[in-house]
């Protein structure tokens, strides 16, 4: 079964959608062609270390709320209920751990490349291992981030999702390469506004077509979709409160102990600014996540008696949200375009942040190691731009493989768990156990206790 597509976009939809892409590109052109023109590595990677609290907080938040997560949250709420809202608990725990444990250390050492810190604390092999894991995860996640919003665009426009994802990636690579860090932050700020306007609009219209808040609430109760607080201590249970609490360290790995997060927080001049930025980050993520849960309940109410999957209108649960957007868009001009702009904004923010951060790591860990002399600031900035172009184009070509694999949410979680978990363990070992080092006791010490 393939995704059913038909062109439902009108002139207003295309105007809203294209305007978002154009304004994002113009921000990149402005910072790349005017002012300092990102002429130094410090400017290109850290924004000159004079960024403001709110823009950084919003940028960190939205760069970790990808289009695939928006789609997946709605799908999960539709299938299993509003317990997904408890992910907010994980983000609160993340904020506390960041403020009191991890960020004080990173802010003190002031290293643009967090894996350089591992070499100074452990050894070069640890740094290379961490860099390899990080590189692998980013290459895998980049096309997945782009493919998720393309599902909505495919349903609404009839265009092949892989080709729409390909075009989206090229736009992102272009403005990220020329505009650097400031472009990433300010496009994120713009795209956060687009996402919030879209979510609020979808929720209000969804309530209207579903019969109002009381109807949505009652249908959710009847369908057992409001059983949020399950305090079962069984960690194998899908929707246990304690399971979401246990996700807190995983969220730390994705948001805080991650090159993109550390790089953005270190662009602030004072640690006090970092603390406030983390607080605003948690609030911003919670706001987006809450509205996604509300929309998931609206989608359930709308299709409670006519499941799109059972009726073969969609072939995967990932397509529920795109189908809902297309259904609403037929009756309300401009809604489909706004929703597409929001999903693309979520994808663009994640991809641009990861590209900018990845370029800095590759520059330090690969390029500088093979150069006999350290390049000048101007030359270093040019090299960073080339790295973004090359890596971005290679990752863009991978979008044609995404449609051949399973649900994007499960893939995203698997990649995060397999790659970010070990990295969190390495950094936590260093920070929480100061006496730990890279040495490993010889196997012979324990051989007599092992029976083969």
Distance separating the two termini = 51 Å
- Strand content range: under 5%
Number of helices: 19
Number of beta strands:
0
Low-confidence stretches: 1-6, 440-452
What quaternary form is this? single chain
What is the residue-averaged pLDDT? 80
Shape: globular
Spell the H/E element sequence: HHHHHHHHHHHHHHHHHHH
Largest sheet: none
Structural class: mainly alpha
Q: Helical percent range? A: over 70%
Radius of gyration: 22 Å
Describe the structure.
The protein is mostly helical. 74% of the residues lie in helices and 0% in strands. It is built from 19 helices and no strands. It has helices at residues 11-33, 41-46, 53-63, 67-80, 87-109, 114-121, 124-157, 161-210, 213-222, 241-246, 248-255, 259-265, 271-303, 320-329, 335-370, 377-397, 399-402, 408-432, 444-447. Helix 1 runs parallel beside helix 15, helix 4 (67-80) packs across helix 15 and helix 7 packs antiparallel against helix 15 (335-370). The longest helix has 50 residues, at 161-210.
Concise summary:
By secondary structure, the protein is mostly helical.
Topology:
Elements: H1 11-33, H2 41-46, H3 53-63, H4 67-80, H5 87-109, H6 114-121, H7 124-157, H8 161-210, H9 213-222, H10 241-246, H11 248-255, H12 259-265, H13 271-303, H14 320-329, H15 335-370, H16 377-397, H17 399-402, H18 408-432, H19 444-447
